[in-house]
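Quick start: what a row looks like.
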Amino acid sequence: MSNEQKKKEAIDAAVSDNENIKNNGEATLDENNHNHRIYLLSVIGEIEGHECLSSNTKTTKYEHVLPKLAEIEDADNIDGVMLLLNTVGGDVESGLAIAEMVASLSKPTVSLVLGGSHSIGVPLAVSTDYSFIVPTGTMVVHPVRMNGMVIGAPPTYDYFKQMQDRIIGFIASHCRAKEDRLEKLMMNTTMLTKDLGTILVGAEAVKEGIISEVGGMKEALRKLHSFISEGKEK
């Protein structure tokens, strides 16, 4: 390959990365001395499900994230995944689908909670092999809620309970927190004025066993690089 061709490929790759950052909050990190290629995936704003949200709302579309995760799993040149989270939650089914898919990846994964990872963002935060939260990051653990008209019948409440049990079960199976403690945090009546639930800030999320460690980008990348190196040695 000539120098001109290599230069053109490098320019095309840079343009593609810039478009990914602009459109989807995604980037490939490969300028490190470990020779590791890391895919940076962001879940920002509200997780959009089957219904389109307002154009004024910052969203993460699950129909974009799921194919990207499949592509990452199938790509030989991707060594690991960094998941950045700053989300208010959103569509429960869609958020849980993303969390399940992240948890099923064979590549090393690390998550980092920045501003917050609330509601269905909690399963997303724990879906990786290891999780970090910045000191000022927040997590809101609360029961399943539904927007719009809800028929007040026993089957409706049974459905809510089943969905909540699925979420609690997923969280408990991917972190150190126990199901009964998670349910207690969800049903807390003393913290949120107009709702049930618990707000956890930074180290509190670690103390409850939901998040692995307090740290930022430096610590998260260091941990991911170590996972990748250990995997390659094996």
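That is the whole record. The chain has a mean pLDDT of 84. The two ends are 34 Å apart (CA to CA).
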